[in-house]
Every structure is written in structure tokens, then in C-alpha cells.
């Protein structure tokens, strides 16, 4: 089965993959050969053979999961907004809608890994009913493939990596303190910066480089590839701007109250916060900025095996198998559980993959916090390297 991406980079699609180098990185991640830095004896070819029949996505599963999650998310959001203030119904709808919005939004991760020409209708639908109104179109996550680039992972050039475990604990606190600002920054980007950017090419270039990447590394600079889909960027930016402008006009006319806007902000902050917190258990974050071997990258990633009912809620759409995702990025989310089961049953006991197992979010967070405390006691802080780097270049 062919699971690597085709080499034609001029595809017209609503995914976050816009540059030839990014697609090549995806191909590198899935190449069934011995990777540089892998410990001798690691059965990579055997692992690939074990899961080779699982790479084909099942569109009906995507659509069913997406539509059910979307209905719950928007339906409970409507109940939350209409229910009496502080009522049990409002609280329950708030909690359920936040988790469902988090799940629906997580499909953006699947979209950026989809092969050219596959599930085009799904990508377009997701962008129109989720990406545009929630201000998170899939182009904004195209930087995710830098996270799979073996030369960028764990460095300032990785838009989804901060050395939180190698830096003092205050950096983790600062990371979490950003959560309330994220919805405000997204609105500011689309409502103010987008229309201004169309008035001056240099401002448009700055916007696409510095304010068009959704990731945890705020110092990341997005590199615009030669094959940049500028027309698609403009279309999606205009659609989200128009949506926000319509909402603003309805507020001015009194159709939508400011209290409703406040409730929407709280729900958005909660849903975004779930992902922001979940990210703390995706990796160990122990790298101080140097280029890592493939073995180090794999062992820096985590597999959450906890049986808590919160685990599937906090790690939706296969995110609990993050180490496996880094091993085979093009495995669809619905195949990750079965792939993990097979690997655990057939890989040797000393396999580096087994070292990625973590019993739950709490254990992962405690490990990060302990490492950060030790780094603080030793006076170590690699964060200046991140703050001073032009990470996307």
C-alpha cells in the first residue's frame, strides 16, 4: 500500500500543507527505511510490516465522528447560551460543548496529514463549518509538518515545541497563562489585521509569516514557500473576517448582546484551554534546542495508556498515541489504537517504542514539572534561544 504523499506540490486543497519542503518532510517521516539515529536493532521495517494494512483512511468514520461531534458541540453551545445564568443546564451544556468543540477542532490535525486529493469534500466542509467561524482554518496549521521535520523537531524552528521540562517551572506557568489571550488574539488577527493587510503587501507578508501559525511556540516564524496558495489564504481570511464583521454588526444593532459575546469568549477559552493543557502530555519537552536523533525524538514523545474516562476526552481523535503518530504520521486516527495494540504485542521488550508509554496525563505533567524544577535549581534556561531565534527560517 502506498501511504506516502505524492511529489506534486501544486495541489489545490484545504489542508495546511503549502510548500514542497513540508511534503518532503512528510514523506521522510513515513519512509520504510532505517532512520538516522535509530538504535541498532530497532525493527522499524518489522513495525511497518505489522501496521501496513492500516494506512487507508475510512471516510465514513471521519464523517460520522465529525457530524456527531459537530452536532453535540453546536447544539450544546446553543443550550449553554440560551439557558438561565448559572443553571445546571447551562453548566452541563458548557462542559459538554467545550469537549465536543475540542474534538471537532482536532480534526485539523488529520486534515494536514491527508494525502493529496483524498477526502476533499471533508476538508472543504470542515473549513466552512468549523475553520471559518471558529477562526482556525486548516492553512493556519500547515506549520505542523515542521514538527515532523527531523531537522527541526524540538528546536526553535518547531512551531509546536517549547523546552518546558528543560527550563524553570515559570515557563510552564507562562505557557498556561497565555490561554485567556488566545481567543482575543484570533479575533484581532481576523477582524483588524486581515483587512489592513490587504492595503499593503509588506503588512500582508508580515501577517502570513508572524501571525498565521497555530502552535504552542509563540516565537515561531512561518516560512512562506514558493508554492504558497495566496488566493486560498485570502479567501479563508475574507470569509472569517466577514463572519466576525457580521457578528459585530449584530451586536451594534442589539440583536446579539455583549453578555452573549462574553459567554462565547468563556466557551472558546475553555475549548482552547483543553488543547493547550493536553499538549503538555504530548512530549517530554526535555530538548534544549539542539537537533535530535530520530530515537531521541521518538523517546521524547508520549503514549497515554491511562484508563481514566477523562483520557479519551482530553486526547480525542487519536492524540493519546502521539509517539505512534510520530513513528507513522500518515496513519489515520481511527487506526492508531489497533496499530498500538499490534506493536505492543509483537515488538521486543526493549523496544524504544515501549519507553514512550505513560500511565496518564497526571503522570506526564508531574514528570514535566519535576524536570522543570530540577532545571530551575541548576540555573538552566534554554528559552532565550527560542526568544532570539527566527524559527521559521
The radius of gyration is: 21 Å
* Low-pLDDT sequence parts: 1-35
Structural class of the helix and strand makeup? mainly alpha
- Count the helices. How many? 16
Question: What is the beta-strand fraction?
Answer: under 5%
What is the H/E order? Answer: HHHHHHHHHHHEHHHEHH
Shape: globular
The side-by-side strand order for the widest beta sheet comes to: 1-2
Total beta strand runs: 2
Describe this structure in words.
- With 393 residues, the chain is mainly α.
- The chain has a two-stranded parallel sheet with strand order 1-2.
- The N terminus is likely disordered.
List the topology elements.
Elements lengths: L19 H11 L13 H8 L7 H24 L5 H25 L7 H12 L37 H9 L4 H16 L3 H10 L19 H23 L5 H21 L15 H6 L3 E2 L6 H4 L7 H6 L8 H11 L10 E2 L2 H18 L4 H6 L5
Parallel strand pairs: 1-2
Provide keyphrases for this structure.
single chain, 393 residues, mainly alpha, 16 helices
What is the structure about, briefly put?
With 393 residues, this protein is mainly alpha-helical.
Amino acid at each position: 500500500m502506498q501511504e506516502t504523499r505524492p511529489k506534486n506540490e501544486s495541489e489545490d486543497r484545504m489542508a495546511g500543507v503549502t510548500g514542497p519542503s513540508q511534503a518532503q518532510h512528510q514523506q521522510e517521516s513515513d519512509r520504510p527505511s532505517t532512520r538516522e539515529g535509530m538504535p541498532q536493532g530497532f525493527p522499524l521495517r518489522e513495525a511497518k510490516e505489522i501496521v501496513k494494512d492500516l494506512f487507508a483512511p475510512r471516510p465514513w468514520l471521519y464523517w460520522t465522528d465529525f457530524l456527531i461531534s459537530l452536532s453535540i458541540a453546536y447544539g450544546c453551545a446553543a443550550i449553554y447560551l440560551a439557558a438561565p445564568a448559572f443553571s445546571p443546564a447551562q453548566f452541563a451544556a458548557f462542559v459538554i460543548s467545550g469537549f465536543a468543540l475540542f474534538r471537532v477542532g482536532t480534526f485539523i490535525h488529520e486534515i494536514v496529514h491527508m494525502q493529496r486529493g483524498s477526502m476533499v469534500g471533508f476538508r472543504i466542509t470542515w473549513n466552512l463549518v468549523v475553520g471559518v467561524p471558529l477562526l482556525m482554518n486548516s492553512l493556519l496549521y500547515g506549520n505542523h509538518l515542521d514538527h515532523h521535520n527531523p531537522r527541526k523537531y524540538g528546536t526553535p524552528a518547531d512551531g509546536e515545541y517549547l523546552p518546558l521540562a528543560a527550563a524553570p517551572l515559570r515557563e510552564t506557568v507562562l505557557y498556561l497563562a497565555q490561554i485567556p489571550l488566545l481567543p482575543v488574539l484570533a479575533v484581532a488577527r481576523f477582524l483588524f489585521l486581515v483587512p489592513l493587510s490587504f492595503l499593503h503587501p509588506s503588512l500582508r507578508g508580515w501577517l502570513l509569516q508572524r501571525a498565521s501559525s497555530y502552535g504552542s511556540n509563540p516565537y515561531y516564524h512561518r516560512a512562506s514557500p514558493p508554492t504558497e496558495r495566496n488566493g486560498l489564504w485570502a479567501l479563508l481570511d475574507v470569509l472569517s473576517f466577514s463572519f466576525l464583521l457580521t457578528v459585530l454588526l449584530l451586536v451594534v444593532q442589539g440583536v446579539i448582546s455583549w453578555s452573549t459575546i462574553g459567554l462565547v469568549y468563556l466557551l472558546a477559552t475553555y475549548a482552547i484551554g483543553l488543547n493547550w493543557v493536553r499538549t503538555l502530555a504530548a512530549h517530554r519537552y526535555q530538548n534544549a534546542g539542539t537537533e535530535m536523533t530520530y530515537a531521541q525524538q521518538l523517546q521524547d514523545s508520549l503514549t497515554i495508556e491511562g484508563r481514566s474516562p477523562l483520557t479519551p476526552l482530553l486526547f480525542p481523535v487519536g492524540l493519546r498515541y502521539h509517539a505512534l503518530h510520530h513513528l507513522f504520521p500518515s496513519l489515520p486516527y481511527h487506526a492508531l489504537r489497533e496499530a498500538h495494540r499490534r506493536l505492543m504485542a509483537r515488538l521486543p521488550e526493549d523496544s524504544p517504542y515501549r519507553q514512550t508509554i505513560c500511565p496518564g496525563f497526571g503522570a506526564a505533567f508531574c514528570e514535566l514539572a519535576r524536570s522543570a524544577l530540577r532545571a530551575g535549581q541548576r540555573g538552566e534556561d534554554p528559552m532565550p534561544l527560542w526568544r532570539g531565534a527566527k524559527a521559521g527560517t
